[in-house]
Amino acid sequence: MKEEIQDYIHFLKIERGLANNSIQAYERDLKKYYQYTVDQSKIDKWEMVDRSHIRSYLNALHHEGKSPASRARILSSLRSFHQFLIREYGLKTDATMHVESPKQERKLPKVLTNQEVELLLDVQGDKPIDVRNKAMLETLYATGLRISELLSLKTEDLHLLMGFVRITGKGGKERIVPLGKHAQKAIEDYVEHARPMLLKHQSYDQLFLNHHGRPMGRQGFWKVLKGLAIKQEIHKEITPHMLRHSFATHLLENGADLRAVQEMLGHVDISTTQIYTHVSKARLKDIYKDFHPRA
Asked: Most buried of the four, 42, 84, 96, 193, by CB within 10 Å?
């Protein structure tokens, strides 16, 4: 049974070209699922798994305290795996068929106000680190990139004369995202003046570097963001993804086309992008409540 899991992981890596983080998540899900089926259900062949075993496993995850969203994601992993077993190993039935996905509340993403964005992007100083920080934040808000996409950007992905950046997103899919004039200028300043000073005599293709001259990591960016938020007295728990949420919400609030926002965010399904229309409506209600005299 372990062999089939390894074959599937290999398929995800080679055939589907998934990112390492996604592959590791699939592998964790399937190893835990395998362990449960062997230990609790005494199963030694995937052909023996049926719908009751899947439901039993999901129920066990519920008792572990896994959220509906986590259980839905895990069920999705199991569905993909069982479909693979049918295609590649000739299994007759899909044990996950007709197993309902756990119902989950769709939480509205947290966003920054326009004023909070302006505060956060108001990075002062002409030291290389300051110039880099300004460029990173301007780029993130101007493009709505995922933090992994921002940190994997290479200098060759920049097309500053044309005013856009090329992104390699989930599954190795490429997309083109425009750069606003503020982000464009911040990146130009960084590339011309700050990056060479950070790089010193080393050689890296990644655009954004840490103070050692090596590629910036997630933890390093998180510290930068948190430090700037405290310095600017923004009293919110800011995350890198909040800038992506703010990018999408502010575009839609100002009349952007939903399909265009979907394209820029790199969403496969437009229903994922539609959550931001709900955010806009929720904020309209707040504004109405705060300012209408008879609200």
From this structure: 96
